């Protein structure tokens, strides 16, 4: 199986490296072009205007592909481990993979439809990406506990669950604030009325 092949562990490492580079490169380009303020802009704001929008879209789409490959490898790994241990239903593992792939699709939507060009589609993509991501990591944490102690240590399970809890907690204010604030432009000056929809 693919998950048992040597060198497959490079895919998750490549995913993290590539995604980090995507955010950093588009951020640097946007700041140098004067398109965003350097102090903590939204990720999507750094990929709204050319030329950084092209780099952002291309690199995030590659990240979505790498994430899908990583999730598929994880799915195969759990299937292989499950052959001898029977710690999780195969349908649960498949459902988890489908949720993860939905998140990757959301990432692709965010990358393709810029924040200011098609805001409603961009926002739906972000909601799908982050929402599915939170559900995916929570399901993977539960699967890790079920496979413990044979395939995971308690420490790894606790770390995964801590990341899941932090993700869930962070997702709630994202939804609340995103629903309250919808702007159709990035550049504004104090005192200027911002058109909301």
UniProtKB/TrEMBL annotation:
Cellular compartment(s): Endomembrane system
Descriptive protein name: DRAM1 protein
The portions of this protein that span the membrane are: 54-73, 94-112, 124-143, 155-178
Q: Which organism is it from?
A: Tychaedon coryphoeus (Karoo scrub-robin)
One Gene Ontology BP term is: regulation of autophagy
- UniProt family annotation: Belongs to the DRAM/TMEM150 family.
Region forming the signal peptide = none
What domain of life? Eukaryota
UniProt keyword list: Membrane, Transmembrane, Transmembrane helix
Q: What is its main location?
A: membrane
Topology relative to the lipid bilayer, per the entry, is: Multi-pass membrane protein
Q: Which Pfam families match?
A: Frag1
Q: Where is the CWH43-like N-terminal domain?
A: 8-182
Instruction: Give me the gene this protein comes from.
Output: Dram1
A GO term from the CC aspect: lysosome
């Amino acid at each position: 199986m693919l998950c048992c092949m040597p060198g497959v562990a490079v895919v998750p490492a490549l995913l993290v490296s590539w995604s980090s580079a995507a955010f950093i490169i588009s951020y640097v380009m946007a700041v140098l072009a004067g398109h965003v303020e350097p102090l903590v802009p939204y990720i999507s704001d750094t990929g709204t205007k050319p030329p950084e929008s092209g780099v952002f879209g291309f690199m995030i789409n590659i990240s979505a592909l790498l994430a899908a490959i990583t999730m598929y490898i994880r799915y195969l790994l759990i299937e292989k481990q499950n052959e001898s241990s029977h710690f999780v239903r195969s349908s649960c593992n498949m459902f988890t993979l489908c949720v993860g792939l939905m998140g990757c699709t959301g990432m692709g939507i965010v990358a393709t439809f810029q924040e200011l060009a098609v805001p409603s589609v961009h926002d739906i993509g972000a909601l799908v990406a982050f929402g599915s991501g939170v559900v995916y990591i929570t399901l993977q944490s539960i699967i890790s506990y079920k496979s413990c102690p044979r395939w995971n240590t308690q420490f790894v399970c606790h770390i995964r669950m801590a990341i899941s809890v932090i993700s869930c907690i962070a997702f709630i204010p994202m939804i609340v604030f995103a629903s309250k604030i919808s702007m159709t432009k990035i550049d504004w000056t104090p005192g200027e009325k911002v058109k909301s929809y």
